Queue: 2 jobs
Job 1
Amino acid sequence: MTYLTRDPIVVSALIAEVAAPQCGGTCVFLGTVRDAPQDGGVTGIEYSAYEAMAVAELDRLLAEARKRWPETRLAVRHRLGLVPTEEASIGIAAAAPHRTAAFEACRYVIEEAKKRLPIWKKELRADGTALWVDPAGRPAVVGPEGTP
Amino acid sequence: MTYLTRDPIVVSALIAEVAAPQCGGTCVFLGTVRDAPQDGGVTGIEYSAYEAMAVAELDRLLAEARKRWPETRLAVRHRLGLVPTEEASIGIAAAAPHRTAAFEACRYVIEEAKKRLPIWKKELRADGTALWVDPAGRPAVVGPEGTP
Amino acid sequence: MATGTVQVRFFARYAELAGCETTAVSVAVPATVADVVRQVREAIPGAALLPERPLAAVNMRHVRLDAPVNDGDEVAFLPPVAGG
Amino acid sequence: MATGTVQVRFFARYAELAGCETTAVSVAVPATVADVVRQVREAIPGAALLPERPLAAVNMRHVRLDAPVNDGDEVAFLPPVAGG
């Protein structure tokens, strides 16, 4: 499974990956790089990862989601390298027989991805400066279950 | 706003409609026609609508969603006519500065659409028969707030 | 009592039962949706097969059966909805 | 007491602070992640700028600082994650 890519995320490809005749509901989430005019403008974010661990962690969290929502089909793509403003850094598709499972599984994957994927952002400001994003309020130590 | 279409729903067009530099999260829902092997196979669903009221009702429910999640941008497409198995009958995109609003607004729109849109399905079975879908347990009388 | 003319619309399975998609009925106004239902079930043979308490809309808004109906209103009888 | 060799990896801002992406340290085993942190902060000048209790992974799994570390393990120090 190719979770990590340096190319733009193609939503239709993600959807095609999870499509199945028994699935009546598909939920897709896209996380996009947003501008921050209050910070003088953001032109893009440079994403870097502990790639092997990010893949292992995605394997684990997708396995958890599939156990919790057994009939759900999931696909995830995280982009690395420079992602310009308004383009997607992460795309998740979840298809299930019924929509509740599709929404819940999709939400689970993005929430866990945010907490657990060893991926970092360097924000590129319009003035040419670059800044590591340190998510506010995130504890410095996270245990296997996300507990400090 | 063109909510109703007889053509396939193009997800990328829906996403483009809601994209904005201040939005960091986009949630998309697709409702697709699913096969039902236990019913001898479904080849498609013929959708018909009280079109003017479906448009008015979508105007109303999107206005409600925009009031409840003020910074959320929404787009909806409902397909009419014959929709073959595995193709989408409804597509919803919700983009917001933060993902919680995107997920919640998208979910609100599909739940309300299911309850309120004057749209009907005739299921086309593999054996050539056709059957109006009468959603089980749905009360025959629904008031303006969805109460019987 | 004044008499009003109401445009009635049937959809999906109800149009098949009624054998038509639209009709006009005269009702004593002020009337309610329930009055229109009764009138229609009596006037159109196939409409007697409609439920006594169908889902209804007046001027493109979902309403209860006790909602008022006035001259010129459009009253629609809607089978249980199944969009999406 | 036996001595083990542990591969250490730094990422993102921590790699900038440490001035390198990887290093190897010798620790008395059995050790904990906290032991490796102490060792690294002493051995590498820039690593003294790392937090005393960084987010860490052993063999590509998130662990607490009291997790065991053995000879040949890969220990990674991770700045607060910000994926998605």
Note: The first helix of chain B runs from residue 11 to 18.
Job 2
Amino acid sequence: MKKIEAIIRKSRFEDVKNALHSAGIDFFTYWDVTGIGNESSGAIYRATIYETRFIQRRMISFVVRDHLADGAIDAILKASRTGELGDGKIFISDMLDSIRIRTGERGPESLYIKD
Amino acid sequence: MKKIEAIIRKSRFEDVKNALHSAGIDFFTYWDVTGIGNESSGAIYRATIYETRFIQRRMISFVVRDHLADGAIDAILKASRTGELGDGKIFISDMLDSIRIRTGERGPESLYIKD
Amino acid sequence: MKKIEAIIRKSRFEDVKNALHSAGIDFFTYWDVTGIGNESSGAIYRATIYETRFIQRRMISFVVRDHLADGAIDAILKASRTGELGDGKIFISDMLDSIRIRTGERGPESLYIKD
Amino acid sequence: METASISLSLDTVWVLLAAALVFFMQAGFALVEAGFTRTKNTTNILIKNLMDFCIGTIFFWLIGYGIMFGAGNGLFGTFEWFSKVSHGGALPNEAFLIFQTVFAATAATIVSGAMAERTKFKAYILYSVVISAVIYPVSGHWAWGGGWLSSLTTPFHDFAGSTVVHSVGGWIALTGAAILGPRLGKYTNGKPNPILGHSLSLGTLGVFILWIGWFGFNPGSALGASNPGLISHIFVTTNMAGAAGGIATLLTTWFRYGKPGLSMSLNGVLAGLVGVTAGCDTVTAGGALVIGVLAGVLVVFSVEFFEKILKIDDPVGAISVHGICGAFGTLMVGFMAKDGGLLYGGGAGLLISQLIGVASIGIWSLASGFILFNILKYTVGVRVSEKEEENGLDYYEHGETAYNM
Amino acid sequence: METASISLSLDTVWVLLAAALVFFMQAGFALVEAGFTRTKNTTNILIKNLMDFCIGTIFFWLIGYGIMFGAGNGLFGTFEWFSKVSHGGALPNEAFLIFQTVFAATAATIVSGAMAERTKFKAYILYSVVISAVIYPVSGHWAWGGGWLSSLTTPFHDFAGSTVVHSVGGWIALTGAAILGPRLGKYTNGKPNPILGHSLSLGTLGVFILWIGWFGFNPGSALGASNPGLISHIFVTTNMAGAAGGIATLLTTWFRYGKPGLSMSLNGVLAGLVGVTAGCDTVTAGGALVIGVLAGVLVVFSVEFFEKILKIDDPVGAISVHGICGAFGTLMVGFMAKDGGLLYGGGAGLLISQLIGVASIGIWSLASGFILFNILKYTVGVRVSEKEEENGLDYYEHGETAYNM
Amino acid sequence: METASISLSLDTVWVLLAAALVFFMQAGFALVEAGFTRTKNTTNILIKNLMDFCIGTIFFWLIGYGIMFGAGNGLFGTFEWFSKVSHGGALPNEAFLIFQTVFAATAATIVSGAMAERTKFKAYILYSVVISAVIYPVSGHWAWGGGWLSSLTTPFHDFAGSTVVHSVGGWIALTGAAILGPRLGKYTNGKPNPILGHSLSLGTLGVFILWIGWFGFNPGSALGASNPGLISHIFVTTNMAGAAGGIATLLTTWFRYGKPGLSMSLNGVLAGLVGVTAGCDTVTAGGALVIGVLAGVLVVFSVEFFEKILKIDDPVGAISVHGICGAFGTLMVGFMAKDGGLLYGGGAGLLISQLIGVASIGIWSLASGFILFNILKYTVGVRVSEKEEENGLDYYEHGETAYNM
Ligand SMILES: Nc1ncnc2c1ncn2[C@@H]1O[C@H](COP(=O)(O)OP(=O)(O)O)[C@@H](O)[C@H]1O
Ligand SMILES: Nc1ncnc2c1ncn2[C@@H]1O[C@H](COP(=O)(O)OP(=O)(O)O)[C@@H](O)[C@H]1O
Ligand SMILES: Nc1ncnc2c1ncn2[C@@H]1O[C@H](COP(=O)(O)OP(=O)(O)O)[C@@H](O)[C@H]1O
């Protein structure tokens, strides 16, 4: 099982969601975060023009069975890239175990619905 | 050390908190997330009735010493299960190290108060 | 590659940000969380004085190349410590891979700008 | 003649603009109640506040007005549809009607706050119909419609409705909150837990709006501007009591809880305003100050009493602010009225009339509220299911969440 | 003489205070439109609402007022700078001017809601200039400035502006929204997706503010208080229709969508208020109730029609509330006017005049709106880029986000 | 006789309703100040705005009113408890009292914004007492209480208080903000950092509320309605200046910062309103437009000047809006007054009187503010600890957070 965390532009979220769906990932958890990186943007508040490196972003996080990981990553890459500074990052890490609370299923089978 | 991440129903949060407490876990960090999964719910906005798969959830995250992990997991499972679609997931992963900022303690002892 | 997650006091955020910058870390992602731990604080609402163990905190998360990890950790430790209960925690874990969406670069080079 | 018609126009203008200000109090109540409750129930509390006014408008016009102002007898006006009864005075009947309508709706909307976060929408709708059509008009008739309280040898004096409007709402709120029981998680083995309101910004704006509304509520009750000294005096006493109430509560919380609290001080301002409403015409500015201060202290202990002793869960403090301070303010008239007050050598006569009024109207509203909510309880049901309450009424009752940030 | 001057003072006071209340509607519109749209565009919608009033004030004064109230001919007033034309009546010209100014600004601000979340700020500024300087004054002249609609054998009757103000805004909103096209993501292969507004608290407060504003809008249009019965009656009919609209929409959504919805019921209140505006002086309280109920039902189907059939994206329902219900209410006068209404045996004369008025002003505003927005489209451009829309207008157009929690 | 009493009633109605509108400005200030600051200090700013009004009400009544309107001498009224002095005119004394009370509270509440997010609550409470009891009444006496400024050969003309109310508040705000020093993190080696306000929705609503409040503030200062032309004119000039200020600031920010900004434009509207307050009765509509435009431009540079040159941290721009634009508007009267203004051939007499008034009242308020805040600084202390400021005043000073979403 792999955990995939993607920090993307909020404006790309819809496309990423659909891309993941096509890649067979129709479950994930997301929340809004603030990112600091290479991108910076100009803004104004009252009499001050300023550059901020704090950018609103969305964190998408999900756990997939290993054989689905690469497809998911490609989907995110395609859907979230604009080519401009600030497209974000994808991080991949290892998961020891996963449990579906409803059924108590553990391991890979907790990650999909057997039919 | 294990990191346990549980994505649960907001309405189950109080019970989970208490269950964890009884399981000897009285420290954790949580934040609100939106989840996409098998559950979907009907909603209305103005003239549109719609089905949404975006469900408000709460992410609970904490790091425990290995021997406490199973107890913690059981506690969460018991307290957060309703048996209906959408009860959520628990993910377990490995932590290399943990530090208590206040004292600089590293490793397991950063995870409990020696007395 | 290591993932470093620090749960700190909101009031220490500015200092931590600067300290990380001096330690060569000028990219990270953060979001606000609620923490439960040893610290508790008194509060009042209408006619009720109460103790709450729910404390507003900020989660800082970033992935660094191994040789930068210790410096980053020291930076956070120095900048976020007040010595009082509730300074927070730092967790270190392993990352399998990282991708820069904009360029598709994988692995360590996705974590810095080659020039 | 000419001049008579002009002064009639002026009186009408005064009453209509006052009615507009009193109407605005609906927004104030909506904001206070929304601000003092949780986001998962915000849509629900807002729609209740909107609907009780809509319903009040229509049902008070349909039958309530007749019951309240129809000649009838000492206990009950006339059962006459469509407000087709004259109120006697020179003022155009419809000016009087709209002014009385917004008053009726004020009494109605007080209740939603105390019953917030757990009441079935359908039950609340039915409650709104009954209070505006019957409960409020009946006791209103006693005091303002030529009923028995107004024909006591020393007539019961409630100038703008500390009892007739606010206490009625407050007492019914009490029965409702008691019958509903506390919100889930409000008490853990008898100890009250704080359930934080979601926005003190909304709450504070709400109180400012209520305050300006009171400048219609009290001076408007003069039903005309022919006595400029009187309406000016009422402006001063009303404002004085609100200010005094706010400060008194602030200091009380400061001493008692160690810090000056906003959420209670907001109640304190309202406590002072409610308290002075009965006597705003007849107490001095200094008297208003005293009433405001006492109400501001009283409200704190009253809130504690209901929350900690009686364990009745009132998220916004409506019972204490409107019920208790309304009754208190009405009684204070017996002491502080320049003419007839005990402290001004007027003897106990007025005080006794005030007691009679407070008691009789109190009993009437408690009884009818008790009966009404029990009927609702055993028919449509008054409380949502545990699951609905946990997940929020907005989702289950309306399918609409208030915030989508 | 003396008395004449006092009654003039009183009329002036009435009109000025009414103007203040109507002004306040600007805040109501700002809150409703902000509440019904997303946080990434909140700064933009707020600044548009602020600026259309500022611009309206200045350009209506500069030339609009002359075009609307200058003697001129049946079609057009006079082209006279700085409002230097007399309106005829005894009322101080500036009292009349400020009252008409806030009306003009109301028509202007209706449009921003329907065009929200995708309109270029620069285009909106230019639109604001044109509507307050020309479009609104021209049709206003026809009905209220001594133009041809007021000189029909049976004059067109639009007491406070269901058509003259609200429909004009609504129809122009329709052209604007149609020319802009729907927001990104509003439709997926023809099926509308809900785009949730960010705060029903703001939206509800906005509606309460609009409601109190209407107590200036309608009774103030009597332009004086010399007829106390009339202004009292207008208070009652106005309030009745708003309340009835709210309840009717609530029930309609309840039956139709399974749950009672707040966001639509807020539109329902406004639908009722818009609907009764034309006939508030001449329909009975019962008539107002009927108009409110019908408008409250109509608005739901109208919103569905534009959203699902015509696929015109109107985030706040401005077209249905102001355009459709404004026209509807104006026609209802033909049926329900106590004097002259078809149902009161007045024959079809009035109804026909109402039809003529609704049609002619409808055509005028649709045509001028269509031309205006097309000119803007091919010059400064009316719609922001996809990227700007995705990331929010606040950031790209203003560099300022509304919320920084 | 009859007619005299009716016109007295009408004047009273006018003044009382104006007082209600001016009261409402308290809500406007609260919202603007809350919206322009951070959520961790929202409870604190709200409670300050609530309390300065409560305190102002009581202490202005206790002694302030006597100091301001007591006969006394040119410098000081009489030290008379409980407002027991007559103001001379026919208007009921209490109508005059309530109107003056809300004015005093306006001056008081201006200061909290400039001192926001770092001032000790206790210090603010004490400040509120002193300004309403002494500082404001003294200079108020000079200009409005029969003091020396009103008895200059060409009397100082400040019709509704650009200087007497707004500048006094603005200058005291200046001393307060200067003595406090900037908020933590406001400057990094001399360069100002933006500290974003948390809600422009609240800020914008606040400005709309202030704007409607101004329709009481300025026309109400006629203290009667016997001159309908005058109050109508004041409505027009007031509205014109506000609108012009908003547009002027919008354009200024657009040219200067590249984008049209909302937060500054909100200040711009207020700048225009403050600017025209002194001369709203005596400048033409065109004159009001000019004053508004100039104030709208001036406020931008003033904000920059204090923030970037003087490095005085004023989170809401109160010093520039009320202090600078108040003084500016007062001076403009010297040029633009139809009767007596330099540009109308009235010579320099009036201008000089205006200069004297602006200077003397400026010195008085700066001096007393400077002394007051220094006394507070070395007694109770004016600034919270670093730790409290970092974690937010809400938690440490009140134990209550404003938002619990
Ligand atoms: N090493 C990292 N750890 C955590 N988050 C990161 C890291 N690097 C980038 N991010 C996140 O990705 C976002 C985009 O990265 P940025 O450097 O701005 O653009 P790019 O990746 O295109 O160079 C940042 O705002 C930040 O939220
Ligand atoms: N593989 C996953 N990775 C991350 N989050 C998940 C994953 N699967 C489910 N979730 C989270 O758990 C929530 C509940 O899962 P869901 O599939 O709806 O119900 P169930 O687990 O009972 O089948 C989802 O809303 C989502 O937030
Ligand atoms: N084991 C843990 N897992 C996750 N979060 C933790 C853990 N321990 C502490 N925290 C977070 O760190 C914060 C501070 O910890 P706390 O125990 O209060 O103080 P200290 O670490 O100084 O003893 C807590 O509020 C919580 O958010």
Note: Residues A 27-29, 61-63, 100, 102, 111; B 7, 35-39, 55, 57, 85-89 surround adenosine-5'-diphosphate (ligand 2) (CB under 6 Å).
